[in-house]
Structure formats: C-alpha cells, structure tokens
Specification:
One of its GO terms (molecular function) is serine-type peptidase activity. It is a single chain. By secondary structure, the chain is mostly helical. The chain has a domain of about 40 residues. The protein is about 45% helix and about 0% strand. The chain is built from 4 helices and no strands. The longest helix has 18 residues. It is elongated and about 60 Å long. The two termini are about 35 Å apart. About 0% of the residues are buried.
Amino acid sequence: PCLAATTHNFNRHVQRSTVTPSSRVSLLLASFVSLAVASPAFKTFVVQETIPALEGFANLGPTPADAVIKVRMALQSRDAAELHAALLDASYPKSANYGKHLSKDKANAFLAPSTDAV
C-alpha cells in the first residue's frame, strides 16, 4: 500500500509539473527532427513498424505541402529502472536515503535517452 501511494503521488507530481524531463526530451527531439528535415543528406528511410489506423480514423489523402505536423517521439530512458528504485528508496521511511530527494539534474540523468535509442 505504501509503495502504490508513493508511486501514485510521484506520478501526480510529474503530471502537474510544467517542465518535465519528458518535455525536455520532446523539445530536444523536435530540434533534432527539424535539423534532420532541413538536411538533404538522407533521402530514404526504413519503416521499422507500421501500426494499423485506429477505428474511426480515415485516410483523407496526401497531407498538404504547407501543413505543419507535430511529431512526438518517446525514446527509451537510460536508467528508468534505477530511477524507479531511487525514488522508492527516497520514499521508504526505513531507508537511509529517506527524504533525500533527487536533484533535477540527477533525475534528468536517469531519464536521458540511452545511446542505443539515439
């Protein structure tokens, strides 16, 4: 029960935050995507996975050339499991690390994309 409450409170805290590590990763990815789109170096790509359209969606034809498409990608974090363990450790009253919350830089280091993902 204590673990679930801690995880729930952490998730609620992350959702309320206006600048989250994931939004920083999204901004970083958007920067890379804009650089990649602007660069004529790569003309081809490989589709790794195709997911069928959700029910209710329809193909309306090609996208207009002047359309702005917002893309959001998620990359696997470097140490998501270790971040979870560190958060639980800081939340467990009998732990020596109880109440020693992670700094923003330390949390961002855990959440940085793995080198394989980039």
